[in-house]
């Protein structure tokens, strides 16, 4: 008798950042923010302004420690196994 196997592939869409609270940080110091979004389960890396950010997760809460950057607006991007989140108005952090 032949044995049949069924494989279920892990599929998800691109990660999307829907909210950053607070969405401000201190220029040249960085800051801590809480991130909400979709498809954030297989995170490989988070960047702010192209620089790696430290992050950790408590259950469904994602906490990001933004790196020190000069004054300006920067995008926070989440990279997962399925790609990198797009630059959107909701994914911006302003450094003052």
Layout of secondary structure:
Layout: E1 16-21, E2 24-25, E3 31-38, E4 43-48, E5 51-52, E6 54-58, E7 61-66, E8 72-80, E9 83-84, E10 92-95
Helical run tally: 0
How much helical structure, as a percent, in the residues?
Answer: under 10%
Instruction: Report the major sheet.
Output: 6 strands, mixed
β-strand amount = over 45%
Stretches where pLDDT is under 50 for at least 5 consecutive residues are none
What is the radius of gyration?
16 Å
Principal-axis shape equals: elongated
Q: Structural class of the secondary structure composition?
A: mainly beta
Distance between the termini: 69 Å
**Secondary-structure element series:** EEEEEEEEEE
- The whole-number mean of residue pLDDT values reads 93
Count the beta strands.
Answer: 10
Question: Overview of this structure, please?
Answer:
By secondary structure, the protein is mostly beta strands. The protein has strands at residues 16-21, 24-25, 31-38, 43-48, 51-52, 54-58, 61-66, 72-80, 83-84, 92-95. It is 0% helix and 52% strand. The strands form 2 sheets. Strands 2, 4, 5, 8, 9 and 10 form a 6-stranded mixed beta sheet that branches. The chain has a 4-stranded antiparallel beta sheet with strand order 1-3-7-6, with no helix packed on it. A hairpin with a 2-residue loop joins strand 4 and strand 5. The protein is elongated and about 70 Å long.
């Amino acid at each position: 008798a032949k044995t049949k196997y069924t494989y279920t592939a892990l599929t998800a869409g691109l990660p999307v950042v829907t909210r950053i609270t607070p969405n401000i940080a201190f220029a040249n110091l960085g800051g801590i923010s809480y991130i909400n979004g979709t498809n954030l389960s297989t995170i490989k890396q988070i960047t702010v302004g192209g620089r790696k950010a430290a992050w950790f997760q408590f259950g469904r809460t994602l906490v990001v420690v933004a790196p020190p950057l000069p004054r300006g607006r920067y995008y926070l991007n989440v990279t997962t196994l399925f790609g990198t989140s797009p630059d959107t108005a909701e994914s911006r952090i302003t450094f003052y």
